[in-house]
């Protein structure tokens, strides 16, 4: 076994009579730490090397957290704005199609009007059904139906 082992690995060998006897056992200590900041002992090590660096690292983590919260809030607001805009456009387009269908029906083009009106209603139903299926498959909470 190599002699340049780290301090936290200890080789267990030897015997009472002084002859070296390799038992083949090795102890290994493994530590894990997860989080946005280094382990406190590592943070203290930074502070030992450069005084005040631990405080700077903490400030950096706080600024990063604030930035992330701000970015996620902005993203949520923009997604809501985009969804609202899409609903307004859809309402306008569907209303326009129904008005055109009604105008065609009153001018004697009942077949064309029924095709446009029917496709408009089928399209609306398909969008609502597809939206509910997408919400279920993505794991988001489905909106409650209000009575």
TL;DR of this structure?
This protein is mainly alpha-helical and 147 residues long.
Can you walk me through this structure?
InterPro entries: RP532. It comes from Chlorobium phaeovibrioides. The chain has 147 residues and is mostly helical. The protein has a domain at 40-137. It has helices spanning 40-49, 53-106, 110-138, and strands at residues 9-13, 22-28. It has a two-stranded antiparallel sheet with strand order 1-2. A hairpin with an 8-residue loop joins strand 1 (9-13) and strand 2. The longest helix has 54 residues, at 53-106. The protein is elongated and about 100 Å long. 1% of the residues are buried.
List keywords for this structure.
147 residues; single chain; elongated; two-stranded antiparallel sheet; mainly alpha; transmembrane; 8% strand
Number of E strands = 2
What letter string, H or E per element, gives the SSE order?
Answer: EEHHH
How would you sum up the major sheet?
A: 2 strands, antiparallel
Net shape: elongated
Radius of gyration: 34 Å
Q: Tell me roughly what share of residues is in helical segments.
A: 55-70%
- What share of residues are in beta strands? 5-15%
- Count of helical stretches: 3
Q: Residue-averaged pLDDT, rounded?
A: 79
Strand order of the largest sheet: 1-2
First-to-last CA distance:
75 Å
List low-pLDDT spans: 9-15
Query: Structural class, judged by helices and strands?
Result: mainly alpha
